[in-house]
Amino acid sequence: MKRTLLIDGDVVLYQCATAVEEVYDWGDDLWSLASDARAAKQMLDSWIRRIIKKLEADNTIFTVSGSNNWRKYVLPTYKEARKGVRKPIVFVPLKDYLKNTYKTCWFDNLEGDDVLGLLAGGYNPTSRKRGKTEEFVIVTIDKDLRTIPGLHYNPNKPSLGIERVGEEEADRNHLYQTLMGDRVDGYDGCPGVGPKTADKILDKNPTWDAVVETYESKGLTEEDALVQARVARILRYGEYDTAANPEVGGEVNLWKPKETRNEQG
Known about the structure:
Elements: E1 2-8, H1 9-19, E2 21-27, E3 30-35, H2 37-54, E4 59-63, H3 71-74, H4 91-101, E5 104-105, H5 112-121, E6 134-139, E7 150-153, E8 163-165, H6 167-180, H7 195-204, H8 208-217, H9 222-232, E9 240-241, E10 251-252, H10 261-264
Helix pairs in contact: 1-2, 1-4, 6-7, 6-9
């Protein structure tokens, strides 16, 4: 069976670009920062060769983030804290090198994580029909991707090997993220809910009802919970219309619970 690695390019680019930065002290309080783009490219190439060999892969597809993040329209504070944070000096030229050298997929209004979710579920940028003898492995250190069903590999935890996340587990992980939030990404989740509480709630009742009831117990509404659930959602195949608006890349089909409490009666 052929194996294609779906690689979180944002993370790999950041790691390689950061690794080649050097600080120089010239004396008299004069400091400078320098970076070797050639060394970063070599490091990236070497990493790719190693991961292909380790996972016995036949192909790779990288994903990178666009510049017009759809989540900011759902929640304006999304990743607000990251504004003004400096990227590594050679991040942009290294990203251009990745796009020009390796198969890379992106949309202007999506994060790289979303593109991984689409690819893992069936989207093919070449429009070629997928064969039954192909398997796809998401390669990332980002725990958020555990909300996507499929095969996963974490380069920071090689001893775990390739793991399979089922749809039920992925759905639970999404509800967990909705309760927990992610302060780094700028969405807070449900006030007062930490990891142990979130697990306790979902171990008892892993449903949207339980999430809404938790939010309401804190004086919030189902709409508040829905906003958090939507920004926590890594897009899956079928949740993005690639042809809706070619100028910006497509249209996101915002997540909705399969059943609301009103529908359940």
